[in-house]
Amino acid sequence: MSWRTGSTLFLEMWPLIQARIADSEERISFTAKLLLAFADEDMDPYDVEDVHPEIRSALRRNGLGVAEPERYTSDIDAHLDKVDD
């Protein structure tokens, strides 16, 4: 799967994930696993990180991280982007 196909498919699925998984922690956990699978198939997480704070939380939790953390400093878990010197 190309990175564009993966990004497009994930973005089409995201509203369904939001609608069908009511609990935000469960939604973030599920999304984190899903994003790992998509990234394994060559999706670029950068293409989806600006869509919703929960997607960024999922990216941080699964270790994929956020490419432009300075844009999202108000995210609850933005501190996970900081690297100690």
General description of the model:
- With 85 residues, this protein is mostly helical.
- It has one domain (3-77).
- It is 52% helix and 0% strand.
- Helix 1 (3-20) runs antiparallel to helix 2.
- The mean pLDDT is 90.
Helix content: 40-55%
- Which shape, going by the Cα principal axes? globular
- Count of the domains: 1
Q: What is the beta-strand fraction?
A: under 5%
In whole angstroms, the N-to-C terminal distance is 37 Å
Task: Determine Rg (CA atoms, Å).
Answer: 12 Å
Number of β-strand runs:
0
Helix run count: 3
Order of helices and strands, N to C? HHH
Rounded average pLDDT: 90
Largest sheet: none
Instruction: Show unreliable segments.
Output: none
> What structural class results from the helix and strand content?
mainly alpha
